[in-house]
Specification:
The structure holds 2 protein chains of 2 kinds.
Chain A lengths: L5 H22 L5 H10 L4 H21 L11 H17 L4 H10 L3 H24 L1
Helix pairs in contact in A: 2-3, 5-6
Chain B lengths: L1 H19 L4 H8 L8 H21 L20 H17 L3 H14 L3 H22 L3
Classes of the chains: A mainly alpha, B mainly alpha.
Amino acid sequence: MTDFTPYSALIGGALIGLISAFLLFGLGRVLGISGFVHGLIARDSQFGWRASFLIGLLLAGVIAAFMTEVPYRIVTMPWFQVLAAGLLVGYGTKMGSGCTSGHGVCGLGRRSMRSVVAVSTFMATAIITVYFVRHVF
Amino acid sequence: MKNIFSLICGLLFGAGLIISQMANPDKVLSFLDILGGWDPSLAFVMGGAVLVTLIAFPLILKRQKPLLDTQFHMPTKKIIDRPLVLGAALFGIGWGLSGYCPGPGITQLGAGLVSGHWADPLMFVIGLFVGSLIYSKLNSTKS
């Protein structure tokens, strides 16, 4: 349903990897976005830089939208499906200690076995979920 | 200094999500739909990113300390336990239901505030924070 865009994917992906390395180089931390969200809720001593990162992430969207048309969801779905998805992602990433950035980009990069298991698991359940939503129901 | 450094990282990471189209939920769902009209693009995002971290992380971790801190703070857990697998499984279901993982949801909300398409990512971000809060509440009462 969407076009194959390998070059922009590779360039954007490399930038994502570079920034993950840059954050490790500067702050000595794994770049895990779900971890930053959980950290905000915990309100611990690491609040400042985590909040700053998430504000940067939000601002990136704001700035990009002023410069160009950022693709948004065209194949719409009910709001409660998106809300339920958010709840599962918030709950699951807290329980499983990470998401696509922390376990995927960083965890695989540092050859963590826990991250290999996590990535295999969430890729599998995500693919199965999409299969059921699009082809069964 | 840490906060400014982190803010810049967030901005550039968000740019990476937009350039790669990881921030586009339709694109993510097409990638996950391997038995439909599969769009394998996002495998290149993950591939490109992991290629960089695989090379860069060991080099960075050889240093005595990071630039702006006295030590590295790496995860120490090694054991593969039930919460890891169950948590990752639940996250995958949420990702597959919406096409949003945490970073793209937040960046898409920023773009939506300008373009007017904010309602969809806002639902996700509200869920993200509330879901995290629910887990914390349920598991703090146990200990």
